[in-house]
Amino acid sequence: MHCDILIRCSLTILIFHYSIHTLQHVLKELGSFRWLLNNLRMQINDFMEENDKLTRNVDKLAGNVGELEEVEKSLSKLVKSNNVDRLVKIVVETRIVNEKLKVRSYVCWYSYCE
Asked: How far apart are CA 71 and CA 77, in angstroms?
């Protein structure tokens, strides 16, 4: 009878020890998973910030596209009307617009790089 109790107690201790060891392993893995999850969240936040910067730059450059389209329309009208003096004026305006675009592009690029 004592032997039977001793065997049962020994088995209970072994099972309890195995359960504790398994639980420790699971808790360790959960800690690693939590670290991975936090790391992914930080990377997602970084990507969202970069996406916001790119969106702002695209919005700024969209205005430049509108200006260039207006210049293109004016040039098309000039070509059809054969008005050379007007063409010279448009070329000068185009140079001015291009210089503004260079400055804006530099500012957009500079603000993106920050």
From this structure: 10
Distance, CA of 100 to CA of 23 (rounded, Å): 66
Alpha carbon of 6 to those of 10, 18, 72, 113: distances in Å?
6, 18, 97, 73
How many Å apart are CA 1 and CA 6, to the nearest integer? 9
Q: What is the pLDDT of residues 46-96, one digit of tens each?
A: 999 999 998 888 887 877 787 888 888 887 776 676 666 777 787 888 888
Q: Tell me the residue ranges of DSSP E strands in 1-111.
A: none
Task: Report how far residue 38's alpha carbon sits from residue 105's, in angstroms, rounded to the nearest whole number.
Answer: 36
**Distance of alpha carbon 94 from alpha carbon 72, whole angstroms:** 9
